[in-house]
Every structure is written in C-alpha cells, then in structure tokens.
C-alpha cells in the first residue's frame, strides 16, 4: 500500500478536488471539516441490504424515467459480474445519498409499457441475478407491487387474477400461440393457426390487430411509399412516428425475450393481451392521425394534427402534442429565419408565407410576399400571420430597398433573444411532455409581437430620418393638393397667360422655369432641397384628340423614388394627379372670377357717365358673387373633409405605427379627398353635375369678358368723341357736326342693343346655372356620405335655391333629416318624461 | 502475469465506467476524479453515509461563501 491509499490522504485529495471548483473556500478548511465529521461518532454503521438498496435506487429512477431504471438494472447486473470492487454496496449507497432530483429530464418518458409477464423474471430483473429464484411468494409480491404501479398498473393489478386465469388455459399449445401473437404484433405472419380454441383466437386476433396498425404506420414512414407527400414537416411527422415505433419495438422485444425465457409459467396469451391494451390504443390513434393527414403538407398538416390536441382523451392529446411539436420544428426554423433575416427557405412550399418571383423592387412591399391562407396552422390566428408577414417584409424592405444594415448587428434586438429562446427550449426539451411546446407558448405570441414592433419601428425610423417620409407626405399635400396657398396663387398668376394657349404650344421646360420662379417668390423656397428637387411640371395630353387648352393638360408632379417609390406607387401618383386636376380646376375658376371682379372694379370708375349699363353690371356682379361663394364652399369642404384623416396619419407616423397602418391611413386620407372633390368612384354621378356647374361658371367669366370689351370699346368711342368735341371747341369750330351726331346716335343704339342681348344671355345663363346648382345640391343631399350632405346644406344655408325650386323640398334632404331627428329626439324625451311622471 | 494484471486493470476500468454511469443516472454531480477518490475511500471501508454528508457540507460551504462574496460585491 503506497501513501496515497490511506484514508486521510485520500480525504485531503477529495477536499482539494471539491474546493477546486469553488475558490471561495480553502482546501484546509474543508479538510478540517471532513476530519471532524469522520471522527465525530464512530459508530459501526449497518451496511444496507443489497436488495433493498437496489430497490431504492430503482424506485427513485423509475419516478423520473422508466428507461433510466432499466438502464440501471442492466448496469447493476453487469457490476455484479465484475469482482473488482470489494464494497459495491457501499459505493452505491454513497451515490444514492448524493443523488439529487434532476431539474430537467433528459430522456423521453416511457411511451409503451414495459412488459412484465412473469413474477419471477421481474424480481430477477430488479434485484439482479444473485436473488434467489423464488416462486410466487407473498414476500416478493409485497416488495414488488409499489414499483410496478409506477410503470404499468394495468398488469400489476391484474396479475394475481391472471395467474388464476391461466391455470385453466390450455397449456399444450399456449407457448407457441403466445410466440405467434408476439410476432404478429410486429406484423410477422404466423406459421400455424386455426387449431386453437375460440377464446384463444379472439385474444390472438386482438393482439394481431397491433400488427395491422404497425404495418400501416410502417407504410407511412417508408420513404419509398407513394402516399407520403414530400416536405420537411412531413419528415418531422415521420421522424416522430418512427420514434414511437422504435419505442414500440423495444417494448415488443422485451416482451419477446420474456416470453422466450419464461418456461411456460409466465407468458400467457391473456397477459400479452393485457399488455397490448396500451399499445393498441396508441397505435390506433397514430394510425388515425396518419390516415387523416394523407396528401396534406405544411400548415395544413399542422392544422390537421392540431385538431387532435383538443381531443378529450389525455393520452391522445399528449400523443398529438408530441407529434405536432416534432413536425412543426421545421416550421419554427423557417419562422425564426423569416422573422430575423427575412429569408424564406422553403423548398417544398410549406411555409405560410409565399414569395413571388419577378416582382419589381418598387412593388415589393405590396406584391412580393403574401400569406398562404390555407397554410396558416390553426394554432396561429390570422392577425398573427399578418404580423409575421409584415415583420419579415419590413426586414427584407430594410435590406433591399433601404439598403441599410448598420444597426442590425450592434443592437442585438430583444425579439431575437425571444425567438432564440423558443428554439432553444424546443431543442432542449425534445418531446418532453411537461414543458409547453413552442406553438402554444406565450413566448411565441410575445416574440412575434416584439419582433413586429421592433422591425416596424426600425423601418419607420429609417424612412423618416433617412428618407424624409413625413416631409414628402406634407409636400404632397402642400403642392399637389394645393394647401400651400401663396405658392398656388402665385403660380396661377404666372401661368395664367401661358395656360390659356392651346396645349400643343406648351413646353415643359418653359413651365418648369415658371414653376421655379413661383417657388423662389413664395414661402416654398424654404422647403428643404430634397422636396424642391422632386417637384416637377408635367403635361398630360388627352388621347382623344380634342383641342385642349393648357389648363386641361397641366399638372404638377411630385416624383418619389427609392424606397419611398414603394410607398407612393404609380396608382397613388395617378390619384394625386386626378385630385390635383380637379382642385386646380376649381381654383382656376375661382381665380378667373376674382380676375373678372378686378376688371369690373377698374371699369366701374369709368361708368359714371354710362347709367344704362349700371343695372346689368350690378346683376352680373351679384351672380359672380354667387358663383364665387359656391367655389369657396367647395374648396373649404374638400380641405375640411380630409383634415381629420391627415391629422390621424401624421400622428400615427410620429407615434411610430407600423407601415401598413400608415399606408392604410394615407389611402384613407386620399379617399376622403377624392370624395370631397367628387372624383371618388362612389361620387361619379356628382362628378358630372359638378362638371356642369363648373362649366357654367367658366361661361360666366367669358360672358363678362365679352361684356367688358363691349363696354370698353363703347367707352373709348365716347371718349374719342368727347375729345374730338373738345378739340373742335378749342379750335373755335362747331363741336358737333351733323354726320357725327347721327353716327353717335347710331353707335349708342347699337350699344343699347348689345346690352339688351347681353342681358338676355345673362338671364338664360342664370337660369341654367341655377338649374345645375339646384341639381347638384339635391344630389349632394341625397348622397349617403354625411359630409356631402352637410356640404349641400352649406351651399344652400339660406334656403335661396330651395325657394327657387320645388325639388329641394323633398323630405330626403339633410335639413329635413336633421329636423326629423330633432323631432324624434324631442318626442323621445317627452315620452320619457311622461313615463317618469306616471 | 502481465496479461492477468492487464485484464484486472481493464476490469477495474469497466467497473468504474459502470459506476460512473450510475452516478450520472442518479445525478450526483460528481466528476470522474472525485468519484475515483470516493470509490477508493469506500473500498477502504469509510462509512458512505458520512462521506456523503461531508461532500454535501463542503458543497454547501462553497455556496455560502460564493453567496456572501456576491453580496459583498453588490454592496
């Protein structure tokens, strides 16, 4: 014996080993402690009985996992055979004393019952080869029952009965029959049959049914089988089923070994049939599930299996849960990859998000990816799928359209950790039952939500900071929807002459110069450069070959490119153009009327000597004011109507909502604008009526022009005549000659006639104009959009048109509705009062 | 003679491996070297219960020490 083998030295070494891992304490302290313990009370300890010790260990292990217990039995049996150890029991008891309850189970729990056919065998298995071969003894029973209840209660409770039952069984061909039955359970054909008694046959066929189910499952997992659809998730299912079958084989193998070993007494057909209960149930349900998932793949498959999770039978539900966890693992991988990197790796088209080829980059956000509705597994709701789609899309968008990757690596986002933990949890627990599977865990929803939030916020931040999303939105509104008043007015003034020319004589470069002049002269010059550089003039000639004036073809254009091009696609630009055209038209008419007023006012001063035109001029200006008010009301309405929508959009953008929501709000705002400009598809009828009114208003302007030129020429003629008279008087000649006077009279007569015909024109115009306005108001009042009804009310707040037209008295108008609602309300309150009084 | 010795060593190794597996199954937390020492001690007739008690105590001591250390670090 060398030095290292005495007890204190070993103890010292042990202490060193133990304290090596924890540097907080010194080996010397530990050694002192150990010595004090060892030497304290040196009573002779009783070495525990080997058998009892084994059973203790076995029972401890079997509470955790049946497989571990089996393994221990094996190891212990081997250990008995080696005679190197002198004190194996002592070592084992040390290990037992040190053993702790494990936190997580590493191995799968027992799927199939371990066959435990003969009492003798089981006792031998537990206590090792050394235990005496006892017959069915009460002592051995008493020890064995508690353990057996852990692993397979069905057999232990029936054991004693079975022993009696088997006594009466036919002993002659029993072992052969049992052997056949066990073989049949794995689908191997029996060699002999038919000469058994009927009850035996019934039992046999019960067990043989296992074989049928087994064959069915085997067909399914066979890679060469044509019934199995291709796909990763199907592979997952196949793997899970294969695992189940492996367990089943193991169970059957144990059964077989026990049947072969036991010499007649242990293995009876009845016992085997009792053992077959559980496997039958399990295989039956496996076969049912496999049958129902045929020809399904991807999400459909998951949905199909997920149905069984809600089964009332716990065992079925647990089985389905295990299968589902296994088969959805590829889905989880795909999902994580999509959420974190925006990549789709889906060779078998199983993922519920689809990527379409050949979509240009500017349609990427809208068209490239979409949800395959039928592939969304049923444990995921529709909103979640939409969120997942938006998240991955944002990631891809950031990478491809915005081309920025910088903060991807350094922020290490929360959601990544979330999802990684989901993945880790899945790989760690395997198919363990106690843990919650990823697809039903709270973590999934949370992970998806945070991922969505992070991705959309990052995207929005990038868009607002690097790509000035908000600036562009505001610029669209200011310049295309004419809310920048000074700029629009100035541009109108500059362009007026140019645009009155026919469209063919207009050139974009001239107009661009004018636009730049307008920008320089107004507050628009303070806009940032990235906005101004995008503002352009464009001409959109009509295709039908009409002779257009410049007004018809002119439009401002706001060019967006890069990632924003995705958000303001061509359809959006077309809508903006339509809106611009309409608003620009109303604005131009208003401007023309104001112009007419200016001419009128200038002319007015010279009309003191011309009393015959006063009444006509007055009437014209009244009608002009009427038309102007209508234009003003239309513009007000279109501004106010869309205001809330814009406010909502801008606040959503500043609060960092996700992009889809912003797009939707933007769309809404445009819708509101279109409705109030009456070019929405729901207001097509109104559009034509409004067009009539606007055309009439323009006619007033041209009418006034002719009137003013007529009056001007007459005025000039008179002035010349007066000047001539004054000149002649200065030369001391006769001021008026006869032919002059006659000519003057003739001219005045023509002028009076001119005025009379203008008056008649004006009357005709006024009648048709009012007719159009009345129709417009009526149609507005009948429209289902409430804001248009209020517009009708606003256009005729003083009942001016109503008095002139009987049609407007119809009880459908907004006023009537309001009145009747008020009446209803009054009646209700009265009724309430009445009942209260009662 | 040497072959016999070799066989014995092999057997001992095998036995140790088995014990180590049992130790893993029972989740004792002993590593191979500690287990070797423990087996030797047991072979020498040390009371296994007491040995277990000692190991547990030393572990507990280590935990206490690290906890108090952590506390002082926090303070």
Automatic annotation (TrEMBL), chain A:
Compartments reported by the entry: Cytoplasm, Cytoskeleton
InterPro entries assigned: GCP (IPR007259), GCP_C (IPR040457), GCP_C_sf (IPR042241), GCP_N (IPR041470)
Principal location listed in the UniProt entry: cytoplasm
Pfam family, one: GCP_C_terminal
Domain of life per record: Eukaryota
One GO BP annotation of this record: spindle assembly
Keyword Cytoplasm listed: yes
Recorded GO MF terms: gamma-tubulin binding; microtubule minus-end binding
Region annotation Disordered: where it falls in the sequence: 137-157
TM regions (residue ranges): none
GO CC annotation, single: gamma-tubulin complex
The Gamma tubulin complex component protein N-terminal domain, residue ranges: 194-464
Domain Gamma tubulin complex component C-terminal: 469-801
Keywords from the UniProt entry: Cytoplasm, Cytoskeleton, Microtubule
Family recorded in the similarity comment: Belongs to the TUBGCP family.
Protein name according to UniProt: Gamma-tubulin complex component
UniProtKB/TrEMBL annotation, chain B:
Protein name: Mitotic-spindle organizing protein 1
Record-stated family: Belongs to the MOZART1 family.
GO biological-process terms attached to the record: gamma-tubulin complex localization; microtubule nucleation by interphase microtubule organizing center; mitotic spindle assembly
Pfam families, sorted: MOZART1
Cross-referenced PANTHER family: MITOTIC-SPINDLE ORGANIZING PROTEIN 1
Localization annotation: Cytoplasm, Cytoskeleton, Microtubule organizing center
Predominant subcellular localization, coarse grouping: cytoplasm
Coiled coil: none
Alphabetized UniProt keyword annotations: Cytoplasm, Cytoskeleton
Superkingdom to which the source organism belongs: Eukaryota
GO cellular component: gamma-tubulin ring complex; interphase microtubule organizing center; spindle
């Amino acid at each position: 014996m060398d030095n290292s083998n005495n007890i204190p030295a070993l103890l010292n070494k042990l202490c060193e080993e133990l304290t090596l891992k924890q540097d907080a304490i010194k080996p010397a302290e530990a050694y002192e402690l150990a010595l004090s313990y060892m030497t304290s009370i040196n009573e002779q300890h009783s070495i525990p009985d080997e058998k009892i010790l084994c059973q203790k260990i076995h029972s401890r292990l079997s509470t955790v996992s049946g497989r571990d217990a089996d393994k221990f039995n094996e190891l212990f049996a081997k250990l008995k055979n080696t005679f190197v150890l002198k004190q194996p029991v002592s070592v084992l008891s040390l290990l037992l004393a040190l053993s702790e309850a494990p936190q997580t189970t590493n191995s799968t729990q027992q799927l199939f019952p371990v066959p435990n056919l003969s009492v003798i065998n089981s006792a031998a298995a537990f206590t090792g080869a050394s235990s005496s071969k006892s017959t069915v003894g009460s002592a051995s029973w008493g020890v064995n029952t508690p353990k057996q209840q852990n692993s397979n209660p069905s057999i232990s409770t029936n054991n004693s009965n079975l022993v009696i039952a088997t006594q009466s069984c036919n002993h002659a061909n029993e072992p052969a029959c049992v052997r056949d039955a066990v073989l049949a359970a794995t689908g191997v054909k029996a060699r002999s049959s038919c000469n058994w008694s009927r009850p035996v046959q019934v039992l046999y066929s019960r067990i043989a049914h296992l074989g049928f189910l087994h064959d069915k499952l085997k067909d399914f997992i066979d890679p060469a089988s044509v019934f199995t659809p291709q796909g990763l998730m199907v592979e997952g299912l196949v793997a899970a089923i294969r695992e189940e079958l492996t367990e089943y084989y193991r169970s059957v193998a144990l059964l077989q070994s026990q049947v072969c070993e036991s010499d007649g007494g242990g293995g009876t057909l009845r016992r085997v049939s009792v053992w077959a209960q559980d496997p039958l149930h399990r295989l039956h349900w496996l076969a049912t599930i496999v049958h129902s998932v045929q020809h399904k793949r991807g999400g459909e498959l998951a949905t199909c299996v997920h149905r069984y999770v809600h089964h009332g039978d716990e065992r079925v539900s647990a089985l389905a849960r295990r299968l589902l966890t296994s088969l959805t693992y590829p889905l989880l991988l795909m999902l994580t990859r999509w959420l974190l990197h925006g990549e789709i790796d889906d060779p078998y088209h199983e993922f519920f998000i689809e990527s379409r080829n050949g979509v240009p980059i500017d349609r990427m956000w809208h068209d490239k990816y979409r949800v395959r509705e039928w592939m969304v597994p049923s444990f995921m709701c529709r909103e979640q799928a939409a969120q997942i789609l938006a998240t991955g899309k944002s990631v891809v968008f950031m990478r491809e359209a915005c081309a920025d990757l910088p903060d991807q690596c350094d922020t290490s986002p929360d959601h990544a950790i979330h999802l990684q933990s989901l993945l880790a949890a899945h790989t760690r627990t395997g198919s363990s039952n106690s843990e919650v599977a990823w697809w039903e865990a709270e973590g999934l929803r949370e992970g998806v939500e945070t991922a969505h939030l992070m991705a959309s916020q990052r995207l929005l931040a990038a868009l607002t900071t690097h790509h000035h999303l908000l600036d562009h939105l505001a610029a669209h509104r200011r310049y295309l929807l004419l809310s920048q008043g000074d700029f629009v007015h100035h541009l109108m003034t500059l362009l007026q002459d140019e645009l009155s020319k026919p469209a063919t004589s207009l050139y974009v470069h001239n107009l661009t110069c004018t636009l730049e002049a307008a920008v320089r002269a107004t507050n628009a010059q303070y806009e940032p450069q990235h906005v101004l550089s995008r503002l352009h003039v464009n001409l959109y000639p009509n295709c039908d070959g009409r002779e257009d004036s410049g007004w018809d073809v002119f439009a401002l254009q706001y060019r967006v490119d890069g990632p924003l091009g995705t958000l303001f696609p061509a359809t959006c630009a077309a809508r903006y153009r339509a809106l611009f055209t309409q608003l620009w038209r109303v604005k131009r008419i208003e401007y023309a009327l104001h112009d007419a007023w200016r001419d009128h006012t200038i002319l007015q001063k010279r009309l003191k000597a011309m009393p015959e035109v006063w009444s006509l001029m007055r009437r014209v200006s009244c009608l002009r004011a009427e038309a102007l008010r209508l234009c003003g009301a239309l513009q007000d309405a279109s501004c106010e109507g869309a205001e809330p929508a814009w406010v909502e959009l801008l606040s959503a953008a500043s609060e960092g909502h996700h992009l889809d929501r912003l797009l939707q709000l933007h769309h809404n705002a445009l819708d509101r604008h279109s409705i109030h400009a009456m070019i929405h598809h729901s207001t097509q009828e109104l559009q034509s009526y409004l067009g009539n009114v606007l055309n009439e208003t323009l006619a007033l302007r041209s009418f006034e022009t002719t009137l003013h030129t007529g009056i001007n020429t007459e005025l000039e003629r008179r002035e010349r005549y007066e000047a001539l008279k004054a000149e002649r008087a200065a030369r001391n000649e006769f001021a008026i000659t006869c032919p002059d006077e006659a000519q003057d009279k003739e001219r005045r007569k023509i002028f009076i006639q001119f005025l009379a015909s203008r008056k008649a024109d004006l009357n005709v115009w006024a009648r048709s104009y009012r007719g159009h306005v009345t129709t417009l108001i009526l149609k507005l009042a009948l429209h289902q959009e409430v804001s248009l009804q209020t517009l009708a009310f606003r256009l005729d707040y003083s009942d001016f048109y109503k008095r002139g037209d009987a049609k407007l008295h119809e009880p459908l108008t907004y006023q009537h509705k309001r009145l009747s609602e008020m009446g209803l309300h009054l009646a209700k309150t009265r009724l309430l009062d009445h009942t209260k009084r009662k | 003679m040497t072959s016999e010795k070799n066989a014995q060593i092999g057997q001992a190794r095998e036995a140790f491996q088995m014990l180590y597996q049992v130790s893993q199954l029972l989740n004792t937390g002993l590593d191979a070297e500690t287990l070797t020492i423990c087996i030797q001690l047991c072979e020498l007739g040390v009371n296994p219960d007491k040995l277990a008690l000692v190991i547990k105590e030393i572990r507990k001591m280590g935990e206490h020490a690290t906890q108090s250390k952590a506390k002082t670090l926090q303070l």
